[in-house]
Amino acid sequence: MMNAQLKKIVLGFAIFFAAFSFGCNASSKNSLNEFYGEDAQYFFGLEELRKGNEEKAKKNFERCIQRGSYYSARRSFEQLALLGNIQERVKTCQEFLKKYDDDFAKLFACREFIQHKEFSLAFSATENLNFETAPNELVRLRLDLMERKKDSRLEQTIYEWFTKRRVSADHYIFYRENARDDLENFITGEGNLQELHDDFSFDVNFVQQFRIAIYRGNYNAAFEMFDQIREMTITRRSVPLTYQLVADMGRACLNGSKENVANAEFFSRLAQNENFSDKKIKYYALLYSGIIYNKNVAYLQNTLSQFERAIQFAETEEECDQAIWYYLQSCLRDSVEEAVSGLRKYCAEWNEPSYFDDFFDSLSVLLFSGAKWNSFSEIFSIIKNYASPAMVSKFAYLTARIMQAGFLKGDKKEIEEAFWVAANCDAGTYVYYKLLAAKQLELSGKQIEKIFFESKSKQKEKNSARKKGPQENSVLQNQDFLTDEKAISARKLLLGYAEFGFAEKIYEEWQFFFEQDRRMIDLPTATKLAEFLRKLDDGQSGFYSKSLRIISRHAGVSQKNSLGDGKISHENFLLLYPQDFSKEVNSACAEFGVADYVMYALIRTESFFEPRVQSHAGAIGLTQLMEGTAAECAANLNVREYDLHDPAINVRFGTFYFSKMKSRLEDSQILALFAYNAGLTNVRRWIRGSKLQLDARGKLSSDLFLETLPFAETRDYGRLVISAAAMYAWLYDGINPCDVVSEMM
Fold first, then answer.
1. Is the CB of residue 599 less than 8 Å from the CB of residue 647?
2. I need a surface site. Which of 503, 587, 623, 652 has the fewest CB within 10 A?
3. For the chain, how big is the Rg over CA atoms in Å?
4. Measuring CA to CA, which residue among 55, 114, 124, 121 is closest to residue 83?
5. Sign of CA dihedral 540, 541, 543, 549
6. How many C-beta atoms lie closer than 10 Å to residue 259's C-beta?
């Protein structure tokens, strides 16, 4: 049973949410004090630091360290370590490490030790690191300290860091700081390998160069090094072979060589090599054997056999799903029939259903292009208990629609039942096919609310459940978030930052907890944080997008490891579909005759309301305009000087461009969206192609036309914007979302 203190904390959450929602009158302040208890001392300490009262702050932090809950006490310790003279700071860091001995504590303490030139303390603190899991910054500190001490283990430590995990930007920076010029020339495609190898005294350094070549995508150079890597790790075994090295050897062969059969056979033999008992080495050897065999269509059975063997060696759920995914993709490359057979064989064995969503998207495109109508209903019957709710909803809807369109036989009852399955799938925030099904079923507003929103009685049930200890009630036990003392302390810390006015700390702390274990922060806490950040945004602080990112990560649902429990509340949907930058959006929409809910949906999909975001391709701002497109808009609107990071300019240009695409595509909003994402020329070509492939008798309906688009990004883009527009119109204007779907499609 849960101890009394933890029960009290759980009860306090219910009290806090009431106080948070209705403001801080005298009675609610008392309730908040009861909720935070000694944790409040941490926030009082931060307030004193803001005022410059260091001594008062120290007393607050010291009190919280002694009596506060886990994370408030820990953060108090960290703040205390930044106060006082050097001797006091060093002593506090030493005490901190005695209480918290994890990698993040070591990283914090070592930064301070090194800043104060206490190198021996930092060296001692970084002994026995796990190079697979330790933060890269902490490993770098360790390497620098070892070099300073001329430690004889330095080369071995570098080797472990470079071969026990994926190469990162931190590895590359280290490499650039230490690489020899002649080796760097080889990695960039210059220099002679044999000369370098003859002059290269340590196999460790050679392995380092190999992994950097893979990291930089220079696969030809990496494959030239392949024989030497194989000789030193497998033949001579002068340095250890790790699964990360096996994976990179696989990438070198896959992308830098055309000897596919020979390379695939090498990895198959490696998996059987008795000198290597590590299951991960065998797993990745088999995985890459299958991937490389798959480059040759004549070796399908070899390919499938290797993936099936890899499944048997998988040690984690992710590895199992990865091998099954490759198996299914290989089946799909052969034929739809083979893919369906693969689904029958393995759909009950995968772990994270959403991992396979992209496979199902590719599969449905091939079904349309090959007119494999019977396969839709067959796949739906296979996956309805195993695929993600989003994919079940999709295949239920498409099965019903192709029956309705006459491509597949099905009576009225079958069609209606399939639409109801699509409408009732609790796919969290992925509402596209639910909306399309609701439209086909001609549901009323109340019926739509029932299939979308968590009922008020369900919300009351949850609120009542929070007042009980988690061990005492099954509602909380069945939800996939943690209820241990550390998790509750993390939620209190985040809510305290909001309540005591430290908004700048919320997002970074939330990221830290989410990356450690996404179950630490529950949906009610995420909701309060998102509400708080949204209220503070001034259009430039970035709180809008941070609010949206927090709530969207916690409201999404997958069949396993979900962060919610099916339907979510109306309150959550308002946070998921915010009307940020309303002044700019309303002005531009009025000027160019575009519905505001369409532009809100477009901006949400393009930028998540981040005005200064820039994509890898160079698209800028809220509506993600390219410089060339923006220049055309400026010329048409007679604007000489502009800044695409200015929300007003960006939204105006984006709205104008969308309206222009719409006017050039028969006033079709969905075609305008496709053109906004993929270009006008592509859209016109797709229209011609769809008529030839699927519906020579006339125009293919927009919902089915979307499923035939060859660009996965554009298919997803259309689904996201259409469903978001429908939700905006419903939530803020009271328009039946089915009417918006009809209008846009």
1. no
2. 587
3. 29
4. 55
5. positive
6. 12
Residue of 481, 480, 483, 505 lying closest to 494 (CA atoms): 505
State pLDDT tens for residues 307-350: 999 999 999 999 999 999 999 999 999 999 999 999 999 999 99
Q: Which residues contact 97 (CB under 8 A, 6 or more apart)?
A: 105, 106, 109, 125
Interhelix angle 300-313/279-293, rounded to 10 degrees, is 160
> Residue 453 gets which letter from DSSP?
B
Cβ-contact 245, 164 below 8 angstroms: no
Distance between CA atoms of 613 and 619, rounded to whole angstroms? 8
Q: Measured at the alpha carbon of residue 552, what is the angle toward residues 654 and 382, in degrees to the nearest 5?
A: 105
Q: If DSSP codes are grouped into helix, strand and coil, which group holds residue 568?
A: strand
d(CA 408, CA 391): 20
- Cite the DSSP H helix spans in 425-484: 432-441, 445-452, 456-466, 474-478
Residue given tokens 């009431």 in the structure block? 18
What is the three-class DSSP state of 646? Answer: coil
- DSSP, collapsed to helix, strand or coil, labels residue 408 as coil
How far, in Å, CA of 388 to CA of 653, rounded? 38
The answer to whether the beta carbons of residues 648 and 623 sit under 8 Å apart is no
Q: Both tokens of residue 741?
A: 């779907």
Biggest CA–CA distance in the chain, Å, is 85
Q: Cα–chain-centroid distance for residue 572?
A: 19
Nearest to 271, CA basis, from 301, 223, 234:
234
DSSP letters spanning 293-333: HTTSGGGHHHHHHHHHHHHHH--SHHHHHHHHHHHHHHHHH
DSSP state of 625: B
d(C-alpha 356, C-alpha 103), whole Å: 34
Nearest CA among 605, 592, 617 for reference residue 673: 605
State the DSSP string of 147-204: HHTT-TTHHHHHHHHHHSS---HHHHHHHHHH--HHHHHHHTT-S-HHHHHHT---HH
Residues constituting the chain: 745
What's the rounded Cα separation, in Å, for the pair 183 and 196? 7
Position of tokens 């057979």? 341
Plot region of 566 (φ>0 → left; ψ -120 to 50 → alpha; else → beta): left
List, for residues 597-640, the tens digit of each pLDDT value. Answer: 999 999 999 999 999 999 999 999 999 999 999 999 999 999 99
Query: Per residue in 183-235, pLDDT tens?
Result: 556 555 555 555 544 433 468 888 999 999 999 999 999 999 999 999 999 99
Q: Comparing C-alpha atoms, which of 373, 357, 470, 240 is closest to residue 715?
A: 357
Structure tokens at 684: 């016109």
Task: Tokens for 429, please give them.
Answer: 């925030």
